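Re: adenosine-5'-triphosphate structure - here you go.
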Amino acid sequence: MEEPIIPPSEEKKQLNFVQQLVADDLAAGKNGGRLNTRFPPEPNGYLHIGHAKAICMDFGVAEMMGGTCNLRFDDTNPQKEDTEYEQAIMRDIHWLGFDWGDRLYYASDYFGKLYDFAVRLIKEGKAYVDDQTSEQIAEQKGTPTQPGTESPFRNRSVEENLDLFERMNAGEFDEGSRVLRAKIDMASDNMHFRDPIMYRIIKTPHWRTGDKWKVYPMYDFAHGQSDYFEGVTHSICTLEFVPHRPLYEYFVRELAGDTAEQYCPRQIEFNRLNLTYTVMSKRKLLQLVKEGLVAGWDDPRMPTLCGLRRRGYTPQAIKNFIEDIGYTKYEALNDIGLLEHNIREDLNKHAGRVSAVLNPVKLVITNYPDDKVETMEMDNNPEQPDAGRHPMPFARELYIERDDFMEDAPKKFFRLTPGKEVRLKGAYIVMCTGCTKDAEGNITEVQCTYDPDTLSGMPGANRKVKGTLHWVSARHCVTAEVRLYDRLFAVENPAAEKEVDFRELLNPDSLRVLHDVKIEPFLAENAHVEGKFQFQRIGYFCVDPDSTPGHLVFNRTIGLKDSWAKEQKKG
Ligand code: ATP
Ligand code: MG
């Protein structure tokens, strides 16, 4: 019998290990066949590309297997949180192409329930108020091989604990003067079981609950229970939470009692995304913004989603990159070159081709009539057969890149030099005849003659010359600003440099601004904000929101040269 032929597009993609665990649970009929994940950002900063990895997993697996994904703001620390961040986070998730529907939640919605649960644990003798400072508590933690020391306040009566906890919340005590701790086991092998802190006093008003609360739950006392309240079935997070998992389950079991046998959200951990030549810590990113070392959260050099958006990155390219690096159980440092490779691949398919001259010098075609203008038809995108063409005016005076001319050129220089021919892209073959210099010897103009027989459709159209140059008509072009971005940091792994302040590792050449860029009129007319283009022979660029009708600003998304793909071929 003949083997059935499965076309490659129908081949089932292999599930990653997290998706496989979820699929196994569904197949086993756990949670009544229900799948509900959540993405739990703390609104204390803007989302970065690391968060995108978590978002693609949380929303992606739900989408893939017919489940739902909640957006829950983990707003348990009023000192650092704000609605500005909340709004930005929602916008960025939508930009990536995901939606939480009506499943928008806030940990602060559960403050009442969490407080009641804490009171219950106190009554059951499972929690106590500790009057020590956090430093003293840390000192008594012990080490993984040595048990900790019990707090002198550990055996307070239930009545005293209830009274103190209530008064903590009433604002009677200073911040840092008391905490509520779970009474578990100061000798546990798992450090997180050594009487973890459940509540601390914070007097800063909360952006949602105002001054209703003076005690706020710690992550470990809020997260698992919030998952439980929402009916989350799979709580997918990053590897640093592996040692927290037993405590996560401990609190859920205490909360749910016997019913935890039927339903307890399952925590699954995967490796974080870390990128070379940048930092991913929100604290450090905030510092860069606050100290003006970058232009804001959406500075195109930042690894934030709003920064990448402004830089011209596409959601699809980011998703493809995340797919490429995959989900594992081992920490890794991901090559930013692979991200750049993905953005090139995506923009190559979708970005319209246009002409812009970044560093212009005038090229005069001495045998071309002064008053003549021809309209050349330029391909919009050779990668897309039906992308069509657009008109581009050609005249006697053009701009070309200064680098494309050399007076005394080496043999292998296939661009313009006296006595040699090049093709002007989409137009004629020209022969260089000379140049003009100013008093300092700077080249102010290059001259050439054209061969009228070499335009498309003419007998000499297919005549081959080695070089092809891009150009714009001097009379028709528009002057624009271009911002050339490079990597934010000068070293591969700034987080690993423990001896130096990370700010000293910033790349001093990460931004260069060009003010006299000449762009073809078609580009000037079609440059809407976030519009993406390939500047022929140079790279991918997008329109910056700083643009005004009379002054266009472009950001370089990425150059054309793909060193990552080249390395892979070699390797
Ligand atoms: P912090 O908690 O220190 O403020 P965070 O980066 O963990 O910073 P959260 O807002 O708590 O920020 O993150 C929300 C979710 O995103 C968490 O589930 C977290 O595991 C995930 N996440 C954060 N950074 C990364 C990363 N680099 N790679 C993958 N997932 C990440
Ligand atoms: Mg976190």
